[in-house]
Specification:
The protein is 27% helix and 26% strand. It is built from eight helices and ten strands. A five-stranded antiparallel beta sheet has the order 4-5-8-6-7. The protein has a three-stranded parallel beta sheet with strand order 1-3-2, with helices on one face. It has a two-stranded antiparallel sheet with strand order 9-10. The longest helix has 12 residues, at 88-99.
Length: 207
């Protein structure tokens, strides 16, 4: 099976995104890495009239940090994290998590924000970033809001985005040097989605 016919638009400015989403409502899909959307299009599980490609927006591929938090753009890829783009203890934890996602070819394209927006409960970032107390910066035009990941996801494949909203970045409290964390998942074979997963974070400096 192949996708239904749809229009394709590659945005050059993030200010375009909300307007395009509102233009076609639920018939518009954002594409970042396309690793979840592509198969869903081919199987016609989604049948959009417009696909909005945000993968070339440089501001969504950057990160910054202060003394307490790390902010990561939504289009940072799993491979970026695996390869150590984030320094320090937090970066080491993210690299280990990223390394366990699917295969390298998928990690080269798949994005942090795309995975969270898709909100598959068997995906690695949903479980692990909840344990790390992640928050989502959600944009709608010029307006933004923060939502704790643990509260934003209300059901499988539902991250609580309203009309015109999209995930711009992800914020994490930095892990201290003496923090302890871990995660484990059960898969039938390497590279598949998990049948079960658990994550824990212990950090007395950031309760």
């Amino acid at each position: 099976m192949k996708p239904v016919c749809f229009d394709y638009h590659q945005v050059g400015d993030s200010r375009e995104i909300s307007g395009l989403l509102l233009q076609s409502g639920h018939h518009t899909k954002i594409m970042a890495g396309g690793q979840s959307l592509g198969p869903m299009l081919n199987l016609r599980l989604v049948q959009p009239t417009l696909v909005v490609d945000i993968s070339r927006l440089s501001e969504l591929k950057s990160f910054d940090s202060d003394t307490q938090h790390l902010n990561m753009g939504a289009c940072i890829t799993h491979a970026n994290l695996e390869d150590g783009c984030i320094p320090g203890t937090t970066g080491e934890a993210l690299a280990i998590i990223a390394r366990g996602i699917a295969y390298r070819a998928v990690r080269n394209r798949g994005t942090l924000g795309g995975s969270l927006a898709h909100a598959d409960p068997s995906a690695d970032w949903i479980t692990t970033l909840m344990a790390m107390h992640a928050s989502l910066r959600i944009r709608n035009g010029d307006a933004t809001r923060w939502a704790a990941l643990s509260e934003a996801m209300t059901a499988a494949f539902d991250i609580g985005l309203q009309d015109g909203e999209w995930i711009e970045s992800v914020r994490l409290p930095l892990l201290s040097a003496d923090s302890r964390w871990g995660y484990s998942k059960i898969c039938r074979k390497t590279g598949e989605f998990a049948n079960a997963m658990a994550a824990v974070r212990i950090d007395h400096e950031h309760r």
